[in-house]
Amino acid sequence: MDNMAIVGVAQTKFERRKEDKTNYDLVFEMTKGVLEDSGLTLKDVDNVVTVSNDFLDGRTISSMAVGEAAGARDKNISTVEGDGTFGAFYGAMRVLSGFNTTMVVAHSKGSEGDIKHITNGMFDPIFQRLLGLEAIAASAIQANAYMDRYGVGEESFAHVSVKNHGNAKNNPYAHLPMDLTVDDVMRSQKIADPIKLLDCSPVSDGAAAIIIANEAHARRAKTKPIWIKGIAHCADAFFLGDRDLADPKSLREAAKRAYAMAGMSDPMNALDVVELYDAFSYMEPLWLEGLGFCDPGGGSRLLEEGITTMSGTLPVNPSGGVLSSHALLAAGLARIIEAVLQLRGEAGNRQVPGAKTALAHGINGPCGQSHCVWVLSSEK
Amino acid sequence: MKTKLDEVEALTLRGRIAVPYTWWVGEVGSRFLIALRDEGKIIGNRCSRCHTVYVPPRKNCGSCFCDIDQFVELGNEGIVSAYTVVRFKYRLQPVDPPFAYAVIHLDGADAGLVHLIKNDLDKLRNGVRVRAWFKDRSERTGHILDIDSFQII
C-alpha cells in the first residue's frame, strides 16, 4: 500500500442538543476547523466524502445537502451512509486510487429525530421491524448471549462505564464526563436486561472531519502526519439469528487483516492506545476479544487487571469512548481523531505518554454486524 | 442592518416523514408467511451445500452464495438461546413492557428466529423450551405476528 497520512482533524464538542446549529452549520464548522488544523486551503482538497444518514437528517440524499458546507461546490463529492470509520476507509481508498487529498466529514443531530424509530428502521421490514426491535433491545440480546457463553457478570460491564465516563473528564469534547461508582451503574434504571441506563451511550449531536493525503501532499500540511499503516473492514450476516452474537468473528477477521497490512505480529505489545466503539458497556470487552487482545471470554479481565486503564499498558478509550459521546456516524471518526491526537502528542490531559502506534475502531449495522479497524502510527 | 446572530431566538420546525411502502415479500418469504397464516406452521429451508437450515427461509444461502430450494417444516417448539427483558416503552413495540425478545432455535433449525415472549418472564432463561402461540385463524393475515408470541413450556 502507498503511504498516506491523516494530516488534519476537527471535532465538535458532543452534547445533547446543539440548538443553535443546523447540520449545514456543523459541516461548515468542521470543514473550516480541519483546514485550519492542517494548514491547507480548500484548493488543496481535491475531493470530499460526506457521511450522513437520511433517517437521522430526515431527508433523502442527505449527503448532497451539505456539499457546499464542505466547500465542495465545484469538487468531486462522494457519500457514505454508515459510521465515520467506513467513510474514512472510503476516503483512504480514493487517495490510493489517485486523488491527492480527501476530506471526510461526518455529522448527526440525534436530538432532532427519534433514535428508537430510526434504529428500528435498520431491521428487516418483513420479519423483524414489526416486532419493534431497535438498537438497545438488539444489543441487550447480544450482551445476554455474551454473558451466558462465558459467565461474565453485569458488574464487569459496569466497570467499563465507570472507567470511560471517568476518562471523559479529561476530554473537553466529551458529552458525559462523570464520576461514577459500579454501584451507581448497577442501580441505574433497567432499560433492557442486562442493559441499564448507565450501560448505554448517550445520543449526542456533533460532527467531525479529517483530511487524508498521499505522501507527496502530506508534506504540504503544517501538522505532523499520522501514517495509515493498516486498514480493513469485514461484515457478518445481517439477521441476528444467523450470527453467533457472542463471537465477533467479523471483527477478528478485520483486525487480522489490518494487523497483517501493518506488519504487526504482536498487536497487544505493538499498540500504545486503543479507541473503540463502545456504544454499550458490554461492547468494550467483547470487541477487545475480537481485536485479539485476549482469549474469547477474557475481555473483562483486561480491565480487572488494569491493563486498559489510563495507567495500564494498553489504555482503551482515554477519550471516554462512545459511552461518553455518541453522535452517530461522527462517533467512529472521533475514534480516529482521538487516535491521531494521541500520536501527535496533542491529547492534553488524556494523553498516553509517548504513544506511537494506535488503533481506532468503528461498527456498522445491528450489534456490530460490520467492523472497521485502523492501525495508525506517528512513524512512517 | 447587522444582526448579532447569537442573540437570535433559535426556532425549530416540527415535522414527520410518513412514506407508504408496499414491500414485495419475495417467493420464499411469501411461502413462510402463508404457512403461518393458513397452517399455523413454521417453515425454514436448508442449503444443499452447507446444510444450514434457515428460518425465516431465504432464497439464497449467504455463506455459500447459492440458491436454496429445499423447504423443511420446523417444529413449533424450540429453545431460547439469548434474550432480553425489555423495560422501556416506545410507540413501535407491539406489546407493553415488560416483555422479552428472544432468539429461538426451533427444533430442526440452525438459524435462530427472533420473536416475542410475553408471559412467565421470571422463568425465562437460556435453554428453556418454548412453543409458538399462534393467533386465531381468523386473525392471521400472513404476518410475522401471526405468531402472537412464544410461550415457555
Structure write-up:
- The complex is a heterodimer of chains A (380) and B (153).
- Chain A has helices spanning 23-38, 54-57, 84-96, 115-120, 135-150, 154-167, 182-186, 215-218, 249-262, 267-270, 283-290, 299-304, 321-324, 330-344, and strands spanning 4-11, 47-51, 76-80, 101-109, 190-192, 195-196, 205-214, 226-235, 273-275, 357-364, 370-377.
- In chain A, the strands form two sheets. A nine-stranded mixed β-sheet of chain A has the order 3-2-4-7-1-8-11-10-9. In chain A, strands 5-6 form a two-stranded antiparallel ribbon.
- With 380 residues, chain A is α/β, with parallel strands linked by helices.
- The two termini of chain A are 12 Å apart.
- Chain A is built from 14 helices and eleven strands.
- The mean pLDDT of chain A is 97.
- Helices cover 34% and strands 19% of the residues of chain A.
- Chain B has 153 residues and is mainly beta.
- Chain B has one helix at 27-39, and strands spanning 42-46, 53-54, 60-61, 66-67, 70-74, 77-86, 99-106, 113-117, 129-134, 147-152.
- In chain B, strands 8-7-6-9-10 form a five-stranded antiparallel β-sheet, with no helix packed on it. Chain B has a three-stranded antiparallel β-sheet with strand order 2-1-5, with helices on one face.
- In chain B, strand 7 (99-106) and strand 8 (113-117) form a beta hairpin.
- The mean pLDDT of chain B is 95.
- Classes of the chains: A alpha/beta (380), B mainly beta (153).
- The A-B interface holds A 19-20, 58, 116-117, 120, 125-134, 136-138, 140-145, 148, 189-195, 237-242, 245 and B 6, 10, 12, 15, 17, 21, 23, 25, 29, 33, 54-56, 62, 81-88, 90-94, 101-103, 111-116, 126, 143-145.
